[in-house]
UniProtKB/TrEMBL annotation:
Compositional bias (Polar residues): 312-334
Region Disordered: start-end pairs: 206-264, 299-352
NHL repeat copies, ranges: 359-404, 408-451, 452-493, 497-540, 544-587, 588-631
GO molecular function, one term: zinc ion binding
A Pfam family hit: NHL
GO BP terms: proteasome-mediated ubiquitin-dependent protein catabolic process; protein polyubiquitination
Keyword set, alphabetical order: Metal-binding, Phosphoprotein, Repeat, Transferase, Zinc, Zinc-finger
Protein's name according to its UniProt entry: B-box C-terminal domain-containing protein
Compositionally biased residues, Low complexity: 221-251
UniProt domain B-box C-terminal: residue ranges: 1-123
Filamin repeat ranges, renumbered to this chain: 157-301
InterPro entries noted in UniProt: 6-blade_b-propeller_TolB-like (IPR011042), Bbox_C (IPR003649), Filamin/ABP280_repeat-like (IPR017868), Filamin/ABP280_rpt (IPR001298), Ig-like_fold (IPR013783), Ig_E-set (IPR014756), NHL_repeat (IPR001258), TRIM-NHL_E3_ligases (IPR050952)
SMART domains reported for this sequence: BBC, IG_FLMN
Length: 632
């Protein structure tokens, strides 16, 4: 009996913790309901405001029409009343003269009296009204509006619990350095049944737990790596075995580029990540803030197989013009290793003996001015001899630099209120110099003056998770809604002009689109992250063509992100999973690479071009932005 009592009492702490967890979920559930109710009320309050505004406009229009008609009729009425009064008084005067005046006086004034009566008789006063009483309200076809009202919003929920949810995928144990890995999260309810709806709060963190080590085996090979002659300055060929300059006991927590989570809206989620160096990494997957079954997962990053490297040594097609983009990788790359982040200055010019196209590196990991944590969007602004604005996502602010890398301004207040930032991901500049900032978490786009003063916001209630933003030649704001897998085009006033795309794999569909750019003809090029391609649409949102496919060869992508278009309509694309920059012509044919070999990119995100031919790239995994030469 004592043993049974002991076994039972051993269960008490677990049961009490479960009670505490359940009570916590109940409280959180109530808070979620209150928050959702507030959002519902806010949504319909704004709709009521629009309806009241329209009602006021229509009533004012009624009053205006009535006033105009009343004015016309009033003028005519005054004329007629004056005529009647004149006739009556004239006739009375003549009758009085005929009855009361002597005959001689009547003879003397007969001519004047006759002329007066003749004037009244010949007066041309139209008796018909100059206006009518027609004024009515035409309702019009409200059926689409009624249907739209019935479809406003929906209540999203699921029964997914962390302890029953699991993660699967070939990348769960081992990935190749510099190549994107993908795992799938499958959510289940407490009974273990698969959830079929999305919307779950799935987050992930991918961090290195050990240093790279020279004894770490390569995938499929233990022989020394041959000298690379690839025309592609891929980061894969530049991450060679490291000399173990630091003790393995030191385990700095490198922060690779933030994992990308894609909600497939069917109860499953895809998580993409990239390992920058050899070593052991930890992938932590959370559902509603709690670890899913088996999390965290230990993942080993190894060098890619030798046969893969050899097979990727492809030649670049002959080009009709000379560029500065690299077409050859020398054996020096295999002897190069990236310095640890702590050894970098916040703004440094090229000092590495290995030649590449990089001119400048700005920033490092940190919370201070000029430092970044996961920079995303980047944009050129023509004000004050040129400025570069960077969306510092995890620091929840925008930082503005000179073209030489000096931080001149930092603005943004963390929060979910008007004028605040929760997760800025995209940034662009309007013709007047104002900044346009896409906020993924707040689900809107904010506009700020060049000084950082808040102006207004657009897209509130119309966006689910905006990522990239750009401005076309008409000043229209093009927003890439990553979560809704669509593109919205707004006027600066906030009026929605065009919306196109939805989730899928067809030509006109997207799967987690990231950034957009506009060419000289107004065509919109969009990077389709999970479909591994770039899609081009005309200004009305009609599909034109697509280019790229999943892979590591010339013209292929492993989750494209940043995009820019030069004066000749050549398209420059940041390849997130392959950590490189590729150049294409206006029809999507591969031209070349930008040489990023000496200081490899690590999960590049946004990208912009300056008029003097420089590429600025937000290097999210290295927490900086880099400047490369680019001859147009």
């Amino acid at each position: 009996m004592h043993q049974l009592i002991h076994r039972v009492t051993m269960q008490l702490p677990c049961m009490k913790k479960s009670i505490s967890d359940i009570e916590g979920v109940c409280v959180s559930l109530r808070e979620s309901r209150v928050r959702a109710e507030g959002e519902v009320r806010q949504c319909f309050t704004s709709l009521h405001h629009l309806l009241d505004q329209r009602q006021t406009q229509l009533i004012n229009a009624l009053n205006t029409v009535e006033s105009e008609k009343q004015r016309t009729l009033g003028t005519q009425l005054e004329e007629l009343e004056g005529w009647v009064q004149g006739v009556e008084s004239g006739c009375e005067f003549v009758e009085a003269a005929l009855t009361q005046c002597p005959a001689m006086e009547v003879v003397l004034v007969r001519k004047q009296l006759g002329e007066r009566l003749m004037d009244y008789a010949n007066m041309n006063v139209p008796p018909a009204p100059h206006q009518n009483s027609h004024i009515k309200f035409v309702v019009g076809n409200t059926d689409p509006l009624k249907t739209a009202f019935q479809n406003i919003g929906n209540i999203e929920s699921n029964s997914a619990v962390p302890h029953q949810s699991s993660v699967t995928g070939e990348s769960l144990r081992q990935v190749c350095v510099g190549r994107g890995g993908t795992v799938t999260v499958m959510t289940r309810d407490y009974r273990g049944d698969k959830c079929v709806s999305g919307g779950g709060d799935v987050t992930a963190a991918f961090t290195r737990t050990t240093n790279s080590h020279p004894s770490l085996p390569r995938h499929g090979s233990t022989s020394p790596r041959p000298t690379s002659t690839s025309p592609r300055p891929s980061p894969l060929s530049s991450t060679s075995p490291r000399s173990n300059s630091r003790s393995p006991s030191t385990t700095p927590r490198d922060d690779p580029s933030t994992p990308q989570v894609l909600d497939l809206n069917n109860g499953t989620y895809e998580i993409g990540f990239v390992a920058g160096t050899e070593g052991t990494y930890s992938l932590e997957v959370l559902l509603y803030g709690q670890a899913v079954n088996g999390s965290p997962f230990t993942i080993t990053a190894i060098q890619p197989p030798e046969e893969d490297s050899a097979s990727s040594h492809r030649s670049i097609p002959n080009m009709s013009r000379q560029t500065s983009h690299s077409t050859q990788v020398t054996s020096r790359a295999s002897r190069t290793s990236r310095r640890p982040m702590s050894h970098r200055s916040s703004c440094s010019r090229r000092t590495n003996p290995i030649e590449d196209d990089m001119l400048l590196r700005v920033g490092r990991r940190g919370r201070n001015r000029g430092e970044f944590v996961n920079p995303q969007g980047i944009a050129y602004n023509s004000i004050k001899d040129g400025r570069i604005a960077v969306a510092d996502s995890n620091n929840q602010c925008i930082q503005v630099f000179t073209l030489s890398g000096e931080c001149k301004l930092r603005f943004g207040v963390r929060g979910r209120g008007t004028g605040q930032m929760q997760r800025p991901t995209g940034v662009s500049a309007l013709p007047n110099g104002n900044y346009v900032v896409a906020d993924y978490e707040n689900k809107w786009v904010s506009i700020f003056e060049p000084s950082g003063k808040y102006v207004t916001r657009i897209g509130n209630g119309k966006l689910l998770g905006p990522k990239g933003v750009c401005v076309d030649h008409n000043g229209h704001i093009i927003v890439v809604d990553n979560k809704a897998s669509c593109v919205c085009v707004f006027q600066q006033s906030g009026k929605l002009l065009t919306k196109f795309g939805n989730r899928g794999t067809d030509d006109y569909q997207f799967a987690g689109p990231h950034f957009a750019a506009v060419n000289s003809r107004g065509h919109i090029a969009i990077t389709d992250f999970h479909n591994h391609c770039v899609k081009v649409f005309d200004s009305d949102g009609e599909f034109m063509f697509t280019f790229g496919s999943s892979g590591e060869g010339n013209g292929q992508f492993n989750a494209p992100t940043g995009i820019a278009i030069d004066a000749y309509d050549n398209i420059i694309v940041a390849d997130w999973g392959n950590s490189r920059i590729q150049v294409f012509d206006g029809q999507g044919s591969f031209l070349s690479y930008v040489n990023t070999l000496a200081d490899p990119l690590y999960g590049p995100q946004g990208m912009t071009l300056t008029p003097d031919g420089q590429i600025f790239v937000a290097d999210s995994g290295n927490h900086c932005f880099k400047v490369y030469k680019y001859l147009q």
